[in-house]
Design goal:
Layout (H helix, E strand, L loop, with lengths): L2 E4 L2 E4 L4 E6 L5 H14 L4 E6 L8 E3 L5 E3 L1 E3 L2 H11 L3 E4 L8 H10 L3 E7 L9 H4 L6 E4 L14 E4 L18 E4 L1 H6 L4
Parallel strand pairs: 3-9, 3-10, 4-7, 4-8, 8-9
Antiparallel strand pairs: 1-2, 5-6, 11-12
Helix pairs in contact: 2-3
The chain binds zinc ion.
Zinc ion (ZN) binds next to helix 5.
């Protein structure tokens, strides 16, 4: 990343757009938390934004390894833009982006403001299909694939999030859950096992 300071004005010469893209339990939230910590240490204003639809977390974002970070809840593009302007943010870190279909519109607004964007998102739903609004944006991000460990064979290339509970998804096909609802599987174990 290249951020250059000129006199008292910080001029951003390179806009970062990075996506952490992987299954459940692959460390995506931890990546956002580490990036926020690094920017904050450098005196650069960064905040984690958490879609209102992500009911697993509220004012704190929790990684699966127990770290928590403060976050800003939002339900619309204007919620994020208002916070960016009010807090004079330079970096937006977006958690659980699969829950926010207007991601493309938001990224356009942030790009016009020269805001760095780091996104954490599931790569696919529990049926093995990508979210259209994520798939359509992949080519506009530097994509970092994140991997989990397969719950059945121990492969470090788990790429699927298998639903293992009887909980029902909402009308958009989303089911917010944790270890009791999902397990990560590699491709071989996914195809050998039920996909429901
Ligand atoms: Zn496996």
């Amino acid at each position: 990343m290249s951020i250059y300071r000129c006199h008292n004005t910080r001029a951003i010469l390179e806009i970062q757009r990075v996506m952490f893209w992987g299954p459940m339990f692959s460390g995506k939230t931890t990546e956002l938390q580490n990036i926020k910590r690094q920017f904050t240490r450098a005196g650069i204003r960064a905040e984690i934004f958490n879609p209102a639809k992500n009911t697993r977390d509220n004012e704190l974002v929790s990684s699966h390894d127990g770290q928590t970070s403060s976050c800003i809840r939002f339900s619309s593009v204007s919620d994020v833009i208002d916070a960016v302007d009010r807090l004079q943010l330079e970096v937006v870190l977006l958690e659980e982006a699969q829950f926010f279909p207007a991601l493309g519109e938001l990224c356009d607004e942030l790009y016009e403001r020269a805001i760095h964007v780091f996104v954490a998102t599931l790569n696919q739903d529990f049926t093995g299909n990508p979210w259209p609004h994520i798939r359509d944006l992949l080519h506009t991000f530097e994509v970092h694939q994140t991997w989990s460990v397969c719950s059945l064979c121990g492969s470090m290339k788990a790429w699927y999030s298998q639903k293992i509970s009887d909980a029902e998804p909402d009308s958009d096909g989303n089911l917010i859950g944790d270890e009791e609802d999902y397990r990560p599987l590699c491709a071989a174990c996914w195809h050998k096992n039920s996909q429901t």
